[in-house]
Amino acid sequence: MNLNGLFFQVSVTATAGVVSSDTRLALLQRGSTIFGRYRGGSIERGYLIGNIVGNTMRFRYSQREMAGGIHGGRSICLLESLSDGRFRIREHFTWKTREGSGVNIFDQVEADHLRSAT
Questions:
Q1: End-to-end Cα spacing for the chain
Q2: 30 CB contacts (<8 Å, ≥6 apart)?
Q3: CB 35 within 8 A of CB 49
Q4: CA distance 26 to 72
Q5: CA atoms within 13 Å, Cβ hemisphere of 101
Q6: What gap in Å lies between CA 54 and CA 63, rounded to an integer?
Q7: What's the burial of 31, exposed, middle or buried (CB within 10 Å: 0-12/13-18/19+)?
Q8: Is residue 113 classed as helix, strand or coil in its secondary structure?
């Protein structure tokens, strides 16, 4: 799977999560290395770095929130292909700087849907 240059929007947020439907994610892929930038909703700016093997992506994330806090954690994601050809990321995250874990879902969108994107 090649995720380079793809954009995603949150469609489902976990109770312990802070991303929302206003959060946008842009990914870059170089070989098996994944880089990402995200923002929107309560997140001023966020970054992730990790790797992808098959349909599994593992990464660490760090973000500055609008309220001023800086938080981060780690995620293991399963990549799915939707029937319309788009990708879905099912993120299983665990905070390292606060309590909690959960599952967020990001669905691929076109770049023009990212008005205030990363």
A1: 22
A2: 4
A3: yes
A4: 18
A5: 7
A6: 26
A7: exposed
A8: helix
Dig out the tokens for 24 from the structure.
């946008």
Distance CA 88, CA 5 (A): 15
pTM surpassing 0.70?
Answer: yes
One-letter identity of residue 106: F
Per-residue pLDDT of the chain (118 residues; tens, 9 = 90+): 899 999 999 999 999 999 999 999 999 999 999 999 999 999 999 999 999 999 999 999 999 999 999 999 999 999 999 999 999 999 999 999 999 999 999 999 987 555 544 4
